[in-house]
Amino acid sequence: MSDLLESVEDGIAWLTLNRPERMNALSTEIRVGLADALTRFSADDKVGAIVLTGAGRGFCAGGDVKAMAEQGARTIEDRIEGFRVSHEVPKLLRTISKVVIAMVNGPVAGAGLGLCLACDLRIAGRSAHFSTGFGNVGYSGDWGGSWTLTRLVGTAKARELYFLGERVSAEKVAYRYMKRNLHAAETETFQTVLDLEAIHQSRTGTTEDHAEAVRAFVEKRKPQFKGR
Fold it and tell me: For this structure, is 87 an active site residue?
């Protein structure tokens, strides 16, 4: 079955992330499918609004950490280009003519938070809870979360949520890049912050701490960060 389900009912297009066994972590099929669907529905006069939700008990856990563990070596340039392609999704969410509503039905973390925040409205069920989550895997943040969270909750709260997220240890490599993203989010455009996130997320993705965090995730243990 497809990782992304589509349907249209009474003028409302429904997009359902469909990887419940992975808490709807973002696969390539989801990223490409969202970009395609948002472009099509934006131009469809029969669609008045778009609802984005997740199958099962979660909205979106962000990037697929298990898949990251299986990837081969990639250059920083390749990583940056990959993020720039993925970042077309939050850009579309912010720029298409149709109202997009995130129906949050469970945990939201990492890039899933960026996906949710880029929507026009968010309706959260009682089971929903939100986390930046990037510090847990030695990353600095992507999908525009630095920019959108800063504007939705203010710079002080955004920094608190990025730096002091649940289960985040005192790891410093990713924090340095998080701070650059968040500082830029105060004054720069969404596109500028997306570009910075792509660069910084790619750099943190090559650190020893990120590799350790991915191993720890797969092995279901707490990561041992060394700050490099």
Answer: yes
